[in-house]
Design goal:
By secondary structure, the protein is mainly alpha-helical. It has 7 helices and no strands. Helix 1 (3-18) packs across helix 7 (181-206), helix 4 crosses helix 7 (181-206) and helix 6 (150-176) runs antiparallel to helix 7 (181-206). The model has no long low-confidence stretch (mean pLDDT 86).
Length: 209
């Protein structure tokens, strides 16, 4: 991205942050990157950026629903042993509830990891086709991954991305404690990270096209 484009994208990110993602202009730009447009696409047609941003938002919300449901179910079941378990086991309600919550969190975390394996490729497919339904075309997503880097390769790239993300978060935490300059750097590098991640996933997807 050139300086002018980077500045525009930072402005989009600022607007999206101020509006609490209600005006997802930065996400709309990521949609254009998912389409595979090269070189870096221009930031224009603001109305289309808004619509495309919401397409990605909708897809991610729909992908998150199963994890939310599972978390709620385990949250409810965690307190059933807390209420009735002590009668049979003699354990305290707090111990039973805590164990149930930990188990529920572990299951939810695994579900989220699996969902995001498909969600990342799903939003790239959304960008390629422009159709929300294609983000849930699991057969096509599986075929693309299998023909490209393969599932083992994809999981390896997926883990690598998470490791890079952890390093990035640590950097942000360090910058957060530096007044003004640190905050300014956070404002600049956070959008660049989003673009990097989008390009990263597009390259994986295009390997199987």
């Amino acid at each position: 991205m050139n300086d002018r484009l980077s500045l525009k994208y930072c402005i989009c990110t600022l607007i999206q942050g101020i509006t609490l993602n209600i005006v997802p202009l930065a996400t709309g730009y990521i949609f254009r990157i998912y389409s595979g447009e090269k070189p870096a696409p221009e930031i224009n047609q603001w109305g289309k950026l808004f619509v495309d941003g919401w397409k990605i938002n909708i897809v991610m919300i729909l992908y998150a629903i199963p994890a939310i449901i599972i978390a709620l179910i385990f949250g409810v079941f965690a307190f059933i042993p807390a209420l009735f378990g002590p009668v049979a086991t003699g354990q305290t309600p707090n111990v039973m509830a805590f164990a149930g919550v930990l188990f529920g969190l572990a299951i939810t975390f695994v579900v989220i990891l699996v969902l995001f394996l498909f969600a990342y490729m799903g939003v790239v497919r959304l960008g390629k086709t422009g159709k929300i339904g294609e983000a849930f075309n699991f057969h096509a997503i599986n075929e693309t991954i299998s023909k490209g880097v393969g599932w083992l390769g994809y999981i390896g790239y997926y883990i690598l991305l998470w490791l890079i993300a952890i390093i990035f978060i640590v950097i942000l935490m360090i910058l957060a404690i530096i007044p003004l300059i640190g905050w300014l750097l956070m404002f600049v590098i956070t959008p660049l990270w989003a673009v990097f991640m989008a390009r990263y996933m597009v390259n994986i997807y295009e390997a199987g096209e």
